[in-house]
Amino acid sequence: MSIFLIPLYLFFSFSDFTMEPEGIIEIGRISYQNPVFEPVLADPSVIQVKDEFYAYGTEDNWGEEGGYHLVPVIKSKDLVHWEQVGNAMVKKPDWKAKGGIWAPDVTLVGNQFYMYYSFSTWGDPNPGIGLAIADKPEGPFIDQGSVFTSEEIGVKNSIDPFFIEEKGEKFLIWGSFHGLFLTKLSKDGKKAVGSKIQLAGNHLEAAYVHQKNGYYYLFGSAGTCCEGAKSTYRVLVGRSKKLEGPYLDHAGKPLLEEGSGKLVLTKNKEENGYVGPGHNSEIVTDAKGEDWFLYHAMDSKNAKLANGVNRRVLMLDKIQWEEDWPTVKNQEPSTEQTEAPVF
């Protein structure tokens, strides 16, 4: 009896294979190209719930490309393919007379989802940070009122919250170009308690802390977020052995000093690339142990919606760790087909 051996490659198309840098061929590895969601998901926050990811963004009117959204919610299984879920809130909080709900930060706390948010207008003399809670990641998030206003906490332009739990205690980091600060929260997370600690200077906003290899990495965005193709937003980082700091950059310069921070990400070098990359979400680690960075940016050729709103699309790039410091390849958004995360 004769036995015929059929080569394995005949069962697969060449598109099923991906060549890794190490030379290993993987089956089924997909690729993607930025942006991963459009037209708008500004100031993103992301959370994983079982095998799905939910992302949340600043209140915006997408105009003819999608209409008005009060804290839009999208979801995905792979960080690449996203679908709209709806809005996180049914109605706007009423503890301020007017303002937008900006830069939501969503975290699973116990068995509920806490969303800290900014309530502000451009040039607002007394913006503040509120808390809304939901039983499901898609909401609805029910408002719990103000955590503090700028006047109450003694920090101008108190927006851009980031929540973190440490040794059973709750903390909030926040600030926008008047210093980044840390405060302890009450057990229910609804009010600030105790004194505040300044972590970084007046050149940063949009704080996010990531823990790795015994360090707390404090990310912040510098420059202008919202000037269309002229935006200068970029991401900087410092690190500390303690949550309360002091945070230093790669050159040993304190983040409290102007001009400090190691560059993680800035605009594309080519003239018609992406500008204003910043306000990154939580870092996501995939099944291969690779870390992924979600943030917003604007295509310099298409930086505004028809109604004039900044077209801040959702972007995804892999973090490279170099001597225990995070960066993105070439320190700029990827624009070509790129290998996707593995889940």
TrEMBL record:
<comment type="pathway">
    <text>Glycan metabolism; L-arabinan degradation.</text>
</comment>
<dbReference type="InterPro" id="IPR006710">
    <property type="entry name" value="Glyco_hydro_43"/>
</dbReference>
<dbReference type="InterPro" id="IPR050727">
    <property type="entry name" value="GH43_arabinanases"/>
</dbReference>
<dbReference type="InterPro" id="IPR023296">
    <property type="entry name" value="Glyco_hydro_beta-prop_sf"/>
</dbReference>
<comment type="similarity">
    <text>Belongs to the glycosyl hydrolase 43 family.</text>
</comment>
<keyword id="KW-0326">Glycosidase</keyword>
<dbReference type="Pfam" id="PF04616">
    <property type="entry name" value="Glyco_hydro_43"/>
</dbReference>
<keyword id="KW-0378">Hydrolase</keyword>
<protein>
    <submittedName>
        <fullName>Family 43 glycosylhydrolase</fullName>
    </submittedName>
</protein>
